[in-house]
Amino acid sequence: MKSALYYGVKNIEIADLPDYECGDDAVILKNIYSSICGTDVAVYNHGLGLGHRINIGGEFGHETVCRISAVGKNVTDFKVGNRVYPYPLLITGDKSRAGTIGGFSEYIYCPCPEWEKSLYHVDESITDKCAALIEPFTVGCRAARRSIPQKNEKAVVFGAGTIGIAAAISLKYFGCSQVVICDYSDFRLNICKELGFEVYNNKNDADLDGLKSITGETRGINGTAIDCDIWIDAAGADSILTAYENLGKFNSRMVLVAVGTNKREIDILGLTFGQKSITGSGGYTPDDVHDVMEIMKSGKWNIEKLITDEYSLDELSAAIERASDVDNALNVVISFE
User: Fold this and answer.
1) Least CB-packed of 60, 105, 157, 236 within 10 Å?
2) What is the pTM of this model?
């Protein structure tokens, strides 16, 4: 089988590896589409230590939709041809490989197939390309859930990548009445607008005056504040946390889902007297998988619109370079068909 192996900064080899032999209790999955994650882009451009534990010379990729191509003789609950979403934490039997399950290989070996745990059925109403985004959407859904959204609340999401847009869609799904997406890329914001969201380019507006004109103003610990109950940081810029400390209203909540490595000082006194909270969000749970499936089945949002480019496995390096171009691309997928 063909498999992409990681060898460092901008160094990927498409290798021919031995085909898997299916064990009696296992299944083998054939990838249909795999999506390029922001952590894949980060380690490709900057090296290890920026996200998932990718190893030199190892497989990587974890956002994928598959079909079962082989079934062990003791396996009765799965059939060849079943279309499935592999849950990265459990699919390989090794939780340390959650980010390196072989999404950029032709096949994935699953020694422990179990419905609603390592594998999830993908409904026929969800297209293959849309299903390739289940994994990043569960991360965004988890971030939205961690904000404890209430009906008719207002929210702002910083970062118009796949996870940020997934968080925005999930906030609407959970009942928020207004969700604004902020980013520096007009290309990505235009896609968000086509999905029905209010958008704002905050590149040259540290005080977020333009955002205030969309959500309105109210009071906060430092005086005038943005009338927004929920802030989601899916971008990872230090300026977003600073803006929340200065402009977050009383009783607002912030969730950090962007992968960042900087240590920051936090205004604890401001959080305390402002009744504000900052929460981290990483990974996801089965509840998030189920909610994402329902969001995709609903057809309310044209999620495939997030996919701007498609490449073959042999073109993986070019695909990651394309995914790095935030002014001209959003989600980039690898096709194995």
Assistant:
1) 236
2) 0.95
